[in-house]
Specification:
The chain is globular. The relative contact order is 0.22. The chain is α/β, with parallel strands linked by helices and about 190 residues long. It contains 6 helices and 6 strands, in the order ααβαβαβαβαββ. The protein has a single domain, classed as Phosphoglycerate mutase-like (Rossmann fold, 3-Layer(aba) Sandwich).
C-alpha cells in the first residue's frame, strides 16, 4: 500500500468512526433545503468495506470491485426510507458507473437511475479530478432548478466538488450557481447498521 493509499485509509477510518449527529441543525437544514428549488442532493455511496479497488478491478464486473455488503445495502435502503419519510421526492438519480454507487442508488429505490461518467471515482487517477469536477459543476449549473436530482458518487469526488469529507451513505445538500460555485446547505447522515 502506497503512502497516499495509507493516508486515505486513515482518513476513511477517522470519518467512519465519527458518529453521525442525528437530528442536528445541519441535518434539519438539509431536509428543509431539499424542498427548495435549485438544490441538489449528492451522496457518498453506502458502506462498502475497504478502501479503493483491487488491482484486478474491472468496471464491467462487480465481482472484481469493492461493493456494498449487507450492512451497506441496509444503509442505502434506510437512506431511501428517510427521503420517503421526509416527503422528499427525487426526479432522477445520476450515479457513478462503479457497482457500489449504482447498487446504492438501486437499493434506495427513489427514481430512475442514469449513469454519469463524471461521477466515477478518480481515487486511483487524481489527474482526472479537475476535468470530472468541472463536468459535474456544468451539469448542475445547467440543471432545471425544479428538477430534483440525487447524485451518488465517491468520497474523492464529493471532496473535490464541495470541499468537505463525507461518511459512507452521507448526503450533502448543495446549491450550485450558474458560475459553478458550490454552497453546502446541510448534510444528512444515516449510520451504517
Amino acid at each position: 500500500m502506497t503512502g497516499l493509499a495509507r493516508a486515505f485509509a486513515l482518513l476513511y477510518a477517522l470519518l467512519a468512526a465519527t458518529p453521525a449527529a442525528a437530528g442536528s441543525a445541519t441535518e434539519k437544514a438539509a431536509w428543509e433545503a431539499l424542498g427548495q428549488p435549485g438544490t441538489v442532493a449528492i451522496m457518498r455511496h453506502a458502506y462498502a468495506p475497504g478502501v479503493g479497488d483491487p488491482a484486478s478491478f474491472d468496471l464491467r464486473d462487480c465481482a472484481t470491485q469493492r461493493d456494498l455488503d449487507d450492512r451497506g445495502r441496509a444503509q442505502a435502503r434506510a437512506v431511501g426510507d428517510a427521503f420517503r419519510a421526509a416527503g422528499v421526492t427525487v426526479g432522477r438519480v445520476l450515479t457513478s458507473r462503479w457497482c457500489r454507487a449504482r447498487h446504492t442508488a438501486e437499493e434506495m429505490s427513489l427514481a430512475p437511475i442514469e449513469e454519469f461518467q463524471a461521477l466515477d471515482s478518480f481515487f486511483a487517477d487524481r489527474d482526472r479530478s479537475a476535468a470530472q469536477t468541472a463536468d459535474v459543476r456544468r451539469r448542475l449549473a445547467d440543471a432545471d432548478p425544479g428538477e430534483r436530482l440525487l447524485l451518488v458518487t465517491h468520497q474523492v469526488n464529493i471532496s473535490a466538488l464541495a470541499s468537505r469529507g463525507t461518511r459512507s451513505g452521507e448526503v450533502l445538500v448543495i446549491r450550485v450557481t450558474p458560475e459553478g460555485t458550490v454552497t453546502t446547505l446541510g448534510s444528512i447522515a444515516i449510520p451504517v447498521p
